[in-house]
Amino acid sequence: MSFAQWLFALANLGLVLLVLLLIGAFMIYGERRILALLQDRLGPNRAGPFGLLQPVADILKLVSKEFFVPPFADRTVYTIAPIIVPLTALLSFAVVPVSDNWWLADLNIALLYVLALSSLRVYGTMLSGWSSNSKYSLLGCLRTTAQMISYELPMGLALVGVVMLSGSFSLVEIVAAQELPFIVLQPLGFIIFLVCGIAETNRLPFDLPEAENELVAGYNTEYGGIQFAFFYLGEYLGVLLIAALATVLFLGGWHGPWLPGVVWFALKTLALIFLFFWLRTSLPRLRYDQLMDFGWKLMLPAALINLLMTAVLGLFWMEG
Amino acid sequence: MHEIIFYLTSAIAVIAAGAILIVRHPVHAAIYLIVSLLALALLFFLLGAPLLAALQVMLYAGAIMVLFLFLIMMMNLRTGQNRPLSLPAGWVPAALLALFLWLELLLLLTRSPSEKVGDVTTIGPKAVGNALFGPYLLVVEAVAVLLLAALVAVLYLSRRRQK
């Protein structure tokens, strides 16, 4: 590769980064408006038309706050930890294909790459909780770790079904193989993936790591200003990532009649994001032992059964 | 450009590994180990083994080290400082053997410097799978039995004592 090509690749990365950060900021606005709508309130509607400038106001407020490290915290780790959360989410987007000729990278291990990054994500919450040196943060971080490890496993197993059907780890090839969306062939896999995705992003009803009424917000209790914004951004980018992945893996990605591929991709992703917001208004938080039981005693066996069924059926269909 | 990335990554891997010995705090040491493992994963990727790189991140950096850190946090080792390693008895022969190995390595490296590293052939996940479930099937089965044995052992050790 020549120098110009490297430069071009870097510029592309920068553009995608900017767009993703903007989407993340507006998702926060969107969630507040949708939550308000579903709860018969108005939500933020003062800054700009329909309150559309609310994210700008939020960012300005968070940036202008003091950069503060509590004296009892572990300085270095405390500063680095919040960056990990949005970073891993942003890196994952490199392999997500938006339309049939539009993606940053087409790795032949794309799916494993995404899973690997999602398993690194746990360090952000874990180290922030530990380095804050406060009991609420530590409890929150222990919960997060246990939760993320427990739900990573069924998530990965649910995806093996998709890999079996398409015969590839590459997300581009997986979408190309979906003339019939895999949700029809893998309904159980889709449900397991979505539930585990909600748990991985710590959203309701699985938001125990930041249960505000018992843990005072859990792992990010001691954070403020721009560092708090990193966690917040990371959470919403995580939601966007899970929605985009579910679209790519199960809902047929860019496939769809009449409209161009990008529009179909965006519509499916937005519908899933709306589902995330909807769940937040409708469901109560689970108890901690229920969460663990649900993960290990229901999700994991279900994922294993799904895998076995796919293998057996696939063997008969593909051979016969 | 690839070479720059390669040497940079190697340097990070070695420095992070060295830092594990120096830092005082167990959690910091664990973080350096994670960095070293990630750098190794990148090296695997550069050398044409993407599957190995992904598995290295998923299993070592993403699963095993998480459990390491989890344990360190659970046992709350924050006050106890990481004491400098005292040399175990009988370290001289071990050090001599290591020195010999290192000299051999240097000799080998200087002997064939002309052999240039050719174009890296990338080994995809499918090839690895075919190899594992083709010629190495027996080994995979043996590992599966070993893991099962480990699982049973853990269940036995963690059972509730009956009165």
From TrEMBL, chain A:
<keyword id="KW-0830">Ubiquinone</keyword>
<keyword id="KW-1278">Translocase</keyword>
<dbReference type="InterPro" id="IPR001694">
    <property type="entry name" value="NADH_UbQ_OxRdtase_su1/FPO"/>
</dbReference>
<dbReference type="InterPro" id="IPR018086">
    <property type="entry name" value="NADH_UbQ_OxRdtase_su1_CS"/>
</dbReference>
<feature type="transmembrane region" description="Helical">
    <location>
        <begin position="153"/>
        <end position="176"/>
    </location>
</feature>
<dbReference type="GO" id="GO:0003954">
    <property type="term" value="F:NADH dehydrogenase activity"/>
</dbReference>
<dbReference type="GO" id="GO:0005886">
    <property type="term" value="C:plasma membrane"/>
</dbReference>
<feature type="transmembrane region" description="Helical">
    <location>
        <begin position="182"/>
        <end position="199"/>
    </location>
</feature>
<feature type="transmembrane region" description="Helical">
    <location>
        <begin position="298"/>
        <end position="318"/>
    </location>
</feature>
<keyword id="KW-0472">Membrane</keyword>
<feature type="transmembrane region" description="Helical">
    <location>
        <begin position="77"/>
        <end position="96"/>
    </location>
</feature>
<keyword id="KW-1003">Cell membrane</keyword>
<dbReference type="Pfam" id="PF00146">
    <property type="entry name" value="NADHdh"/>
</dbReference>
<feature type="transmembrane region" description="Helical">
    <location>
        <begin position="229"/>
        <end position="252"/>
    </location>
</feature>
<dbReference type="GO" id="GO:0009060">
    <property type="term" value="P:aerobic respiration"/>
</dbReference>
<feature type="transmembrane region" description="Helical">
    <location>
        <begin position="102"/>
        <end position="123"/>
    </location>
</feature>
<keyword id="KW-0520">NAD</keyword>
<protein>
    <recommendedName>
        <fullName>NADH-quinone oxidoreductase subunit H</fullName>
        <ecNumber>7.1.1.-</ecNumber>
    </recommendedName>
</protein>
<feature type="transmembrane region" description="Helical">
    <location>
        <begin position="6"/>
        <end position="29"/>
    </location>
</feature>
<comment type="subunit">
    <text>NDH-1 is composed of 14 different subunits. Subunits NuoA, H, J, K, L, M, N constitute the membrane sector of the complex.</text>
</comment>
<feature type="transmembrane region" description="Helical">
    <location>
        <begin position="258"/>
        <end position="278"/>
    </location>
</feature>
<comment type="similarity">
    <text>Belongs to the complex I subunit 1 family.</text>
</comment>
UniProtKB/TrEMBL annotation, chain B:
<protein>
    <recommendedName>
        <fullName>NADH-quinone oxidoreductase subunit J</fullName>
        <ecNumber>7.1.1.-</ecNumber>
    </recommendedName>
</protein>
<dbReference type="InterPro" id="IPR042106">
    <property type="entry name" value="Nuo/plastoQ_OxRdtase_6_NuoJ"/>
</dbReference>
<comment type="similarity">
    <text>Belongs to the complex I subunit 6 family.</text>
</comment>
<feature type="transmembrane region" description="Helical">
    <location>
        <begin position="6"/>
        <end position="23"/>
    </location>
</feature>
<dbReference type="GO" id="GO:0005886">
    <property type="term" value="C:plasma membrane"/>
</dbReference>
<keyword id="KW-0874">Quinone</keyword>
<dbReference type="Pfam" id="PF00499">
    <property type="entry name" value="Oxidored_q3"/>
</dbReference>
<keyword id="KW-0472">Membrane</keyword>
<feature type="transmembrane region" description="Helical">
    <location>
        <begin position="89"/>
        <end position="109"/>
    </location>
</feature>
<feature type="transmembrane region" description="Helical">
    <location>
        <begin position="30"/>
        <end position="51"/>
    </location>
</feature>
<dbReference type="GO" id="GO:0048038">
    <property type="term" value="F:quinone binding"/>
</dbReference>
<feature type="transmembrane region" description="Helical">
    <location>
        <begin position="136"/>
        <end position="157"/>
    </location>
</feature>
<keyword id="KW-0520">NAD</keyword>
<comment type="function">
    <text>NDH-1 shuttles electrons from NADH, via FMN and iron-sulfur (Fe-S) centers, to quinones in the respiratory chain. Couples the redox reaction to proton translocation (for every two electrons transferred, four hydrogen ions are translocated across the cytoplasmic membrane), and thus conserves the redox energy in a proton gradient.</text>
</comment>
<keyword id="KW-0812">Transmembrane</keyword>
<dbReference type="InterPro" id="IPR001457">
    <property type="entry name" value="NADH_UbQ/plastoQ_OxRdtase_su6"/>
</dbReference>
<keyword id="KW-1003">Cell membrane</keyword>
<keyword id="KW-1133">Transmembrane helix</keyword>
<dbReference type="GO" id="GO:0008137">
    <property type="term" value="F:NADH dehydrogenase (ubiquinone) activity"/>
</dbReference>
<feature type="transmembrane region" description="Helical">
    <location>
        <begin position="57"/>
        <end position="77"/>
    </location>
</feature>
